[in-house]
């Protein structure tokens, strides 16, 4: 078969006049013969009857269809080349020459990608990426008319911001586009404007990624576009790219790494033990290879297991790790992973993956796997272990360890009793010193019991999916303090069955009867609902969905605030950068209103009431809640289309 082996490019000018030329890319595809090819001996074997009257010689040849694809933002072209090689030149494994396509027109300064493969495909495609020079880098720019009036573009740093300075004549109209030059796939426009020069565009440093490119062109017919990608080596852009990267689970057993640009990283499967040690790489199921972003990848596993995770790392350090089945298969299990290696003549060996390495079963090592080597081998043979992967080279087995742990409970209880006896003796010997410690411990226990008994009902307006995730993160963090939290996100079934008004009445009555507090989370949507309700309660009540608990609750909340019954029973809160303090309606300022996460300690102290812990412990809990909220806050403010923290701002310098 005839296949492409190498791509070669050459920049040429396609000129219509001496001073009217376009930049063009000439592509040469080098071809070679792979495999064994045999010249047909007799056409009659193929059902073709030879005409005895026609005795012209027929030269056999090797034919192939080669696809050549050319992409340069915002255009793409594809050609199909039919190649014929005389039989005399066909030598298996040898090059037969090259075919030249003349040529692909491209924009100045563009990054072009070229692919070549056979049709049908006999092997992996060849690809080549090349950065074309712009008018500033061309010695022949005087021959290209579009270079004469091309807008000038300079990039400069201004503290944490980046300034794009476009040096163009006054009143000249031009187009400016910012786009993500992704591989694979076409470039994705991110921001586009038609402007009048000169201009200075400001970019926030958090918007920078390595594949962010800038394209500028005069607003004239068939004008040439200048493209530059100035952030490829910017350390801030690479840090932002890793912050934006996300691992996603795609059922049943697939995963995908989402990122704006391609990542110079590798992905592997690993085994995460519940003891918190490093995740042990599993090389056989998923060999180390470069990650393809924004593409679904299948796990080569027979069964899923909560301890199997994915690591995405660079050659310097690990960047991302996710145990993707944690939500569906539960927490990490104390299972022992056995690695079976298969050699020639049906030779097999088993070792157990531990933090110190892979320990052979039935060895004399002083590890848990070595001590239980015989029983674990019997578990594999009797089918009590779960087979996760199977291949000609080996297999992976997950063996439960619960039954072996139960055998040691007697020794554990004996050790606990002995320790309790020693502590009791120490308490008797140092009774006076212990009294003060016991008094402090008693206060902490009482505070913890009071906190656990305090209930909190969260009410919010579901503005969008990002804000709902933020509310869910806050509810989960408060639940871990612990507080008994009620929120409609966790009660969808009851909300649908009872209706939002009946559900809120029941939750509010139970929370207040138990001495709890109702938390009003203000957002732009919640403030708008309050104002609508205060103006016209009847129309506001019917304007929202059947599952909007916040809208349904306003009819019960407002009387408490109007009649002065709200203090001590309600607390207000809003998130920093999402709402200003003055936006909260004046009616609701009769109760404490906190800004999150900047006022988290005071907010938590108010929720826990008189039994709140000491300030240092309250500060620790506030830090814990702040860490839990941070990913959801970043995601909420980074969400496209929200207008929070995204997109450049144009400033006219004329």
Automatic annotation (TrEMBL):
Biological-process GO terms, alphabetical: inflammatory response
**InterPro entries, from UniProt?**
IL-17_rcpt-like (IPR039465), IL-17_rcpt_C/E_N (IPR027841), SEFIR_dom (IPR013568)
Spell out the GO cellular component terms annotated for this protein, sorted alphabetically and separated by semicolons: plasma membrane
Q: Residues in domain SEFIR?
A: 453-605
| PROSITE patterns hit by this protein | SEFIR
Pfam families from the UniProt entry: IL17_R_N, SEFIR
Q: Which GO terms describe its molecular function?
A: interleukin-17 receptor activity
What is the native source organism of this protein?
Answer: Balaenoptera acutorostrata
Compartments it resides in: Cell membrane; Membrane
Q: Which UniProt key words apply to this protein?
A: Cell membrane, Glycoprotein, Inflammatory response, Membrane, Receptor, Signal, Transmembrane, Transmembrane helix
Can you name this protein? Interleukin-17 receptor C isoform X8
**The gene coding this protein:** IL17RC
Question: According to Swiss-Prot or TrEMBL, what is its membrane topology?
Answer: Single-pass membrane protein; Single-pass type I membrane protein
Q: Which residues cross the membrane?
A: 409-429
Q: What is the lineage of its organism?
A: Eukaryota, Metazoa, Chordata, Craniata, Vertebrata
